[in-house]
Specification:
Layout (H helix, E strand, L loop, with lengths): L1 E6 L20 E5 L5 E5 L5 H7 L6 E5 L23 E6 L6 H6 L17 E6 L3 E5 L2 E7 L7 E7 L2 E6 L20 H4 L4 E5 L4 H5 L9 H11 L3 E5 L7 H13 L5 E4 L5 E3 L1
Parallel strand pairs: 3-4, 4-5, 5-6, 10-11, 11-12, 12-13
Antiparallel strand pairs: 1-2, 1-14, 2-3, 7-8, 8-9, 9-10
Length: 276
């Protein structure tokens, strides 16, 4: 599998630099596998716009897996060019809720917030609730599990070609009763178990997290502790605080890499591709 980051929730350029190195777009990650006609997309933040402009005519099916429906994870949908291509089959998956996915997304993709309604899209699209248990999505197998974050939210496990990617972009495992000592009671542990690549929320410093317990996000230290707990091979720090400079994100990454840990740690940045 080839994993590419299109939006990581971003950073700002360090003073004196012309551009930001981590990027400024919100959450979006693509995964491609053995079938060149299929693409899986994790979340539809503002980064999905650039992804849409790169998708070639060889792709005929796209599955967009929404972790939850907070605006920073769906804001790019209306600017996703493939939704206006008649030759494409697109399925948008979202967490189950008492309100249908069509109604929830329709609140954004309709006037006065957006000029185009869902029903006006030209692609052959379908909206579906994420099922319980593992299910096939093209050549990949996906498993979703509810995780600790405000409003219905899930983490995803994607398996294919002998590799496993776990995606938990907005997640607070430390809110559980025994973190980090017991995976049985830890939110997200099942979907992340033994992942080759774990993409995980790392928005806060330890001091910041102490003042924001219950907000649904993790500190960098807790992201590393979670990765160790589930036996992940590589951890991509994700969901950077967009008020940080590149140098500040570099500092958090360096601190995470100095921790005595069994996991390799990288900083997710726009344009980064990892083969799993």
């Amino acid at each position: 599998m080839r994993v590419t980051f299109w939006g990581t929730r971003g950073s700002i350029a360090t003073p004196g630099a012309e551009t930001t190195r981590y990027g400024g777009d919100t959450s979006c990650v693509s995964i491609s596998a053995s079938d060149p006609t299929h693409l899986l997309v994790l979340d539809a933040g503002s980064g999905i716009r650039r992804l849409g402009l790169r998708i070639g005519q060889e792709v005929t099916r796209i599955d967009v897996m929404l972790s939850h429906l907070h605006l920073d994870h769906i804001v790019g949908l209306g600017f996703f060019a493939p939704l206006f291509r008649r030759d494409l089959s697109i399925t948008i998956w979202g967490p189950r809720s008492s309100t249908p996915l069509l109604d929830r997304l329709g609140r954004y993709l309709s006037p006065p917030l957006f000029p185009v309604r869902l029903r006006d899209l030209e692609s052959a699209y379908e909206l579906r609730d994420v099922p319980v248990g593992a299910f096939d999505v093209g050549p990949l197998t996906v498993t979703a599990e509810p995780v600790i974050h405000p409003d219905p939210a899930v983490g995803y496990r994607v398996e294919g070609g002998g590799g496993t990617v776990a995606y938990l972009p907005d997640h607070e495992p430390a809110l559980g009763p025994a973190f980090p000592s017991d995976p049985w009671w830890t939110s997200g542990a099942d979907v992340a178990a033994s992942a080759d690549l774990l993409i995980h929320d790392a928005q806060y410093t330890g001091q910041e997290y102490a003042e924001r317990v219950g907000w649904g996000h993790s500190s960098v230290d807790d992201a590393v502790a979670f990765a160790d707990l589930v036996g992940a091979r590589e951890l991509a720090l994700f969901h950077h605080d967009p008020s940080r400079t590149d140098d500040q994100v570099d500092g958090l990454l360096a601190a995470a890499q100095r921790v005595r840990s069994t996991v390799d740690v990288v900083g997710a940045r726009e344009g980064l591709s990892i083969t799993v």
